[in-house]
Amino acid sequence: MTFTFRPVTRADLPLLGRWLEQPYVARWWNHDTGPDDLERDFGGTADGTEPGEDLLALDDGEPIGLVQRSRLADFAEYRDEFAALTDVPEGTATIDYLVGDPGRVGRGVGTAVIRAVVDDTWRTQPAVPALLVAVVAANERSWRALERAGFRRVAEGPMEPDNPVDDPLHYVYRLDRPVTGSG
Q1: pLDDT tens track for 20-37
Q2: Number of domains in the chain
Q3: Domain extent at residue 83
Q4: For the N-acetyltransferase domain, which residue ranges apply (predicted)?
């Protein structure tokens, strides 16, 4: 599987709404999917007026998932939640992800998308030294995908869950930029 990424546009909002309504996504993302809600949460990044990136993951040009990528420095409250549990190097970024196409769930696509966005991050964002990702502990499918993509668990502790029904216990995963040796 080879994935490419492109920024979300307003034309993609109905597709994001359908994906966010999928029961396996809605359980963890807990996101309102009305047109105004989608505009509120994705419109600013589509316009470039808010920090972070909302990226469609494409398989041979076909949208199959969403990746959100942002520098933790742009979201101080979230960075502070991480910092309460682990070291947060200057410039660290985070990702969130979903496989929107139900026919691709449970087939390793999530892990492949994570690997691809990590590679894209190292290639396009040279100032990012590491990626940190927090996953609610009960979301085993998500944290297992991170582990298969090479992330290691570095901390666990309370963080604000996306879904209020979840316990605050999160696992924090980290992947450092590979060190490339010279000659």
Answers
A1: 999 989 888 888 899 999
A2: 1
A3: 3-176
A4: 3-178
